[in-house]
TrEMBL record:
Region (Disordered): 83-127
Transmembrane region(s): none
Native species: Sphingomonas limnosediminicola
PANTHER family listed in its UniProt record: NADH DEHYDROGENASE [UBIQUINONE] 1 ALPHA SUBCOMPLEX SUBUNIT 12 (PTHR12910:SF2), NADH-UBIQUINONE OXIDOREDUCTASE SUBUNIT B17.2 (PTHR12910)
Full protein name: NADH:ubiquinone oxidoreductase subunit NDUFA12
Coiled coil: none
Length: 127
C-alpha cells in the first residue's frame, strides 16, 4: 500500500495514526481466518478493536470475534466457544454492491424478466 493511501484513507486497512495507537496501547489477542487482527487495550482489556486486512467492513468479522469485540464473551472465540459442528456454514460477508448480491427478477443485472402482473391489485380508496 502506498504512502499517500496509507496516510489519508481509513476504508482499506489502518491509517498511520491507528497503527501507532495500536502499537503503543494495544495487545494483540488473536487473528481470524480472513487476516483481521484483534487487540485489547493494555490498561483496560474491555476496550477492544480490530485492524482489518483489507476493506473496513464489519460484516467481515466472524460471529465469534464479533461476540468478543462486543464483550459478550470474555476469552477469545477459540477458547470460549464450542467447536464448529459439521452442519454449520461459514459466515459470509455482506454481498450488497457485488455481483453475488441478490437481484430479483426484472432487476438490472439479473438477466431475468419480471413476471407479468396478475391484475389482482385493488387500490385502497378512503371513504
Amino acid at each position: 500500500m502506498g504512502f499517500w493511501s496509507k496516510t489519508f484513507t481509513w476504508w482499506n486497512g489502518a491509517t498511520w495514526g491507528t497503527s501507532l495507537f495500536t502499537r503503543r496501547f494495544g495487545d494483540e489477542v488473536g487473528k481470524d481466518d480472513l487476516g483481521n487482527v484483534y487487540y485489547a487495550d493494555k490498561k483496560n482489556p474491555n476496550r477492544r478493536w480490530v485492524i482489518y486486512d483489507g476493506s473496513n467492513d464489519g460484516s467481515r468479522v466472524p460471529p465469534g470475534w464479533q461476540a468478543w469485540l462486543k464483550g459478550t464473551i470474555e476469552d477469545v472465540p477459540s477458547k470460549a466457544l464450542p467447536p464448529v459442528r459439521k452442519f454449520q456454514k461459514d459466515p459470509t460477508p455482506n454481498l450488497t454492491g457485488t455481483m453475488a448480491a441478490f437481484r430479483p427478477d426484472g432487476a438490472l443485472g439479473s438477466g431475468k424478466i419480471r413476471p407479468a402482473s396478475t391484475g389482482d391489485y385493488e387500490p385502497w380508496i378512503p371513504e
